[in-house]
Design brief:
about 140 residues; mainly alpha; 9 helices; about 0% strand; globular
Length: about 140
């Protein structure tokens, strides 16, 4: 999926007013996801995204590697912390951040291969998986 198409879909799903706020929301969610899942899962997901969106994931995974975090481990945090991190990055409330998360994850589900989405789903705790599209969350 192309960058403009992804951003347009996120904007429509999250009911965001403009492209700039949609870019910020999308990057905020992707960066937080990259912190939560193993770096290998994040990097494989990034490989299937447009270059500039992949770059925000690689920034997180590169930082994790340079800080000595094992590649097989993501940070452990729950839905509340996930929403809080997205909210801080996006400069919004946690409620809006949850809406952004659900929108980005739905678009991500269409943008990356089913195998990568399965790996991402498996790497998330049950409370964060609830943000995934219903069919994916039930897997």
């Amino acid at each position: 999926m192309r960058h403009d198409e992804m951003i347009g879909k996120v904007q429509a799903l999250a009911h965001l007013p403009d492209r700039g706020s949609t870019e910020l929301a999308t990057r905020s969610v992707l960066q937080t996801l990259a912190e939560r899942v193993p770096t290998g899962v994040a990097d494989h997901m990034a490989a299937q995204l447009p270059r500039d969106l992949a770059a925000c994931i690689h920034d997180v995974t590169d930082s994790a590697v340079s800080e000595g975090r094992p590649s097989g481990a993501g940070e452990r945090f729950d839905l509340t912390a996930f929403a809080g991190r997205v909210a801080v990055r996006a400069g919004t409330t946690e409620d809006r951040a949850l809406r952004y998360c659900a929108a980005v994850l739905e678009v991500l589900d269409a943008a990356v291969s089913p195998e990568e989405m399965r790996k991402l789903t498996d790497a998330l705790p049950a409370d964060i998986r609830e943000l995934l599209p219903a069919a994916r969350a039930d897997e």
